[in-house]
Amino acid sequence: MGAENTDQIIIHVDMDAFFASVETRDNPALRGKPLIIGSLPNERGVVATCSYEARKYGLHSAMNIKEAYRLCPNGIYMHPDMDKYKAVSEQLHEIWNTYASAAETIALDEAYLDVTEQAGDLDGARRIAQTIKRRTRDEVGLTCSVGVAYSKTAAKMASEEKKPDGYFEIPTAEDFVNLIIDRDVRVIYTVGEITAQKLYAAGIHTVRDVRDNPEIVAGLLGKQGQWITQLALGMDDRKVTPYRPEDAKSIGREVTFQEDVNNYALLKDVLVVLALCVEHRAKRYGLHGNGVTLKLTYFDMKNITRSQKAFGCDSAVMIYREAAELLDHVEKRPVRLIGVAIHHLAGEDGRQITMDEISPGAKERRDEELKRLLLALQKRYRLDFAGHLEQIYQSDTLHKTVEYMRRHT
Asked: Is residue 139 among the annotated active site residues?
């Protein structure tokens, strides 16, 4: 990797239009078509991802679905199948992790791999990268783009250089700087739209401008400005850190209604379903929360969050109780989105037992309360919630269930 860059060799792997590529693999009739995965044109929501054919029309992830349809009315629009994508993701990460001493999962379709020991040098890293590309194609039927570099920032930049199905190397900090020196500041990691606008207003438009004006950048952005200046100089010594579920800030679920909801009794019923989903995910990782957060987006797109402490919170009943109490104290206006989360996560070792749990029969009382909540939902909506919880945990089924509840209030 060059005499001055022997500390680490990092590979960044990024799948090409992952959701769309999986659907195209499974249905060859979609090949070559503008395919948009996310909400449907008649629904509220955004584009999750889209095929490269759709991107030619100006579509991109997180675009409002109405705008996507305006730009590409002849596209094929599909809901995501998250369970299928997660299964494919597990296959991918199992292949990639084989070649790393440490693997940092960024998303279902993306990871950093520390291959310093396995590769030894740039030639070794190149062989590993090509093997990853080949196995991803042969064993999973999909293409990925791979970058090899001396740092995480450079590796991610490299994987984006030749998409789709690309490969690129950035061996040294000097190579990194030469590549980006005259590009827009948004090419720098952590520089989003708001930060970029602040820099533009100060006359900082390119990476070169950042390098030439470190005092101005630091004055505008403080510690973030210092970090951006370091990256503009090619300096990034962050290590590949394996993801641990307990490192997450929160575990939550949310749903967007297709029509605004004024009925706060319905919102409480939806909180029961969301609390069950949060409990399911938390138990999967052996985690609990020490606080509960309620999130609302009103009809005018104003977002609010309300939180309170709730020690040892890991059951749907406990999560629901806290979230429902928070809901009682918000301004009652039409709601577009509702979500609930547990935060300040910890494993069983760090679990603080509550007074409620110490009292005899606490678990039995919670189980009975959950049964009552589910029975009430069943009577109101004529849905067998208790018998179909496994399906409700799936994203698509959750949204369909909540919409059914909304239409039948």
From this structure: no
